[in-house]
Design a protein that fits this description.
Elements (H helix, E strand, L loop, with lengths): L23 H11 L8 H15 L4 E6 L10 H22 L3 E6 L12 E4 L2 E4 L19 H22 L19 H23 L26 E5 L3 H6 L1 E5 L11 E5 L4 E4 L9 H8 L4 E5 L5 H11 L8 E5 L6 H15 L4 E4 L6 E3 L5 E3 L1 H17 L6 E5 L40 H14 L3
Parallel strand pairs: 1-2, 1-14, 2-5, 5-8, 8-9, 9-10, 10-11, 11-14
Antiparallel strand pairs: 3-4, 6-7, 12-13
Helix pairs in contact: 1-4, 3-4, 3-11, 8-9, 9-10
The chain binds phosphoenolpyruvate and manganese (II) ion (MN).
The site of manganese (II) ion has 5 residues, from loops.
């Protein structure tokens, strides 16, 4: 039996990956300041996402969840934000075109700062120092590893300014399907990939001209997919934000009670607690203990949530977790983000699908082919092999279809970031650009997990889009 939930009830449970601050009073001062600051997102935006995720669950839309492993305060620039949004838009355009389905876009953006770590300390040179836990906790500089509460406040403001710019970009025509070249092709070097993308944009331009000519051009995406026919959340296309809900003190300070919109059925209740720091939050693979603080916090918020599901998740444990976070089996509430690794997916996914089907829990299944496939290159850089990523993704699609299930989306770590000379990052091996181990060091910019670059991401987009082609 669960006790009463409140935004702080997680405090009575053990929190994995907890950060210990040397000055608790300083932390309390910062948290009480954050709790007076305005929400980043609204209850109606969160409800809208839940509604659209319901469509993904019914196979009427596809979910793209993507962005950096971790954002950094220094990377909060015009160029990086627009490159990231541009890549998400290009990727989703390829999917919409191939699968003829609306795409729900959720960025790992505007708050994805905190990182779980497998060890509390790490070796830098010959020193053993506290591990880097993300810009909202401590610094990458090995001399700046003491957790500083001011970084939480800075994370709030960096998230706000990122989201402000994303909203501004999307309401200023940046996402317009009439000008996809503005946000994409300049990055693509591979002639074959360029040609494939140009075929889509030309086809699209013809389709838009045709609909304008016959007078059915609303200038917007399909309205049947929208709730209440209102304006899109962030302008011309919908776009939502997400991060791992790791730092519960921070999440609590942005958890606010609001009336539930009249159009929404929330078991007869008129108010709910919304985490207003992002539209969507997920529980990481290291913090999903059934009796732990994170699961306790997540069960009480109204936002749609993700749960990372790795090879150590037991079948019964998965259903128990769903029973806790979604006792009323509400649609659009839970997305299971599977991340077993290419070599382990065969042993786990079918069993997980089977037990969830038997439990009657409605879920969205999405594939994260990144986190089970990380390796260290001979030069010591953390990397991932494009072929292994594709292998997990194709196994995932196949296992779902042989088990009367369907893959509802993908969760990727990618970046459209370019260096000063306009080159993509070199963090993952392979892809159509055939990135080799010797080339990894050229423009390796991630301070966390290796990300697919622009070309490698489009390779994945074409693969998925071809699979779902109608
Ligand atoms: C992540 O998504 O960056 C992450 C740390 O994932 P996981 O919890 O699946 O390891
Ligand atoms: Mn990661």
């Amino acid at each position: 039996m669960h006790t009463t939930w409140s935004p702080s009830s997680w405090k009575s449970k053990p929190a994995a990956q907890a950060v210990s601050y040397p000055d608790q009073q300083h932390l309390s001062r910062v948290l009480s300041k954050i709790s007076t600051l305005p929400p980043l997102v609204t209850a109606s935006e969160i409800e809208r996402l839940r509604y659209q995720l319901g469509a993904v669950e019914r196979n009427e839309a596809f979910l793209l969840h993507a962005g950096d492993c971790a954002e950094s305060f220094d990377a909060c620039t015009n160029e990086n934000i627009s490159a990231k949004i541009g890549l998400i838009l290009s990727f989703s355009l390829i999917l919409i075109w191939g699968a003829r389905l609306p795409v729900v876009r959720i960025g790992r953006i505007a708050g994805q700062y905190a990182k779980p770590r497998s060890s509390g300390t790490e070796k830098i040179g010959d020193r053993e120092v506290t591990s880097f836990r993300g810009d909202n906790i401590n610094g990458l500089d090995p001399n700046d590893r003491t957790p500083d509460p001011e970084r939480l406040l800075s994370a709030y403001f960096h998230s706000t300014t990122t989201l402000n710019y994303v909203r501004a970009l999307l309401t200023s025509g940046f996402a317009s399907l009439r000008h996809p070249r503005d946000w994409s092709l300049s990055h693509v070097r591979s002639p074959a990939l360029r040609a494939e993308f140009e075929t889509i944009t030309e086809g699209l331009s013809d389709a838009l001209d045709f609909s304008r000519t016959i007078g059915v051009d609303s200038g917007r995406e399909s309205t049947s997919f929208e709730q209440g026919g209102g304006r899109s959340v962030l302008g011309e296309v919908d776009f939502y934000t997400s991060h791992e809900g790791l730092m519960l003190d921070y999440e609590q300070s942005l958890t606010r009670q609001f009336p539930v919109p009249a159009s929404v059925n929330h078991g007869g209740k008129t108010t709910a607690f919304y985490n207003t720091s992002a539209h969507f939050l997920w529980i990481g693979d290291r913090t999903r203990q059934l009796d732990g603080a994170h699961v306790e916090y997540f069960r009480g918020i109204r936002n749609p949530i993700g749960i990372k599901v790795g090879p150590t998740m037991g079948n019964e444990e998965l259903v128990q977790l769903l029973d806790i976070v979604n006792p009323d089996k509400e649609s659009g509430r839970v997305t299971l983000i599977t991340r077993y690794g290419a070599g382990k997916i065969e042993a786990h996914l079918a069993g997980h699908i089977d037990i969830v089907q038997k439990s009657g829990h409605p879920v969205i299944w999405i594939c994260d082919p990144m986190h089970g496939n990380t390796l260290t290159s001979s030069s010591g850089l953390k990397t991932r092999n494009f072929g292994t990523i594709i292998s997990e993704l194709t196994s995932c699609i196949r296992i779902h279809s042989t088990n009367e299930s369907r893959l509802g989306g993908v969760s990727l770590e990618f970046t459209g970031e370019l260096n000063d000379e306009g080159f993509s990052v070199t963090e993952c091996l392979g892809g159509s650009m055939e990135l080799s181990e010797e080339q990894l060091g050229l423009r390796y910019q991630s301070f966390c997990d290796p990300r697919l670059n622009f070309e490698q991401s489009l390779d994945v987009a074409f693969l998925v889009s071809n699979h779902f082609r109608k």
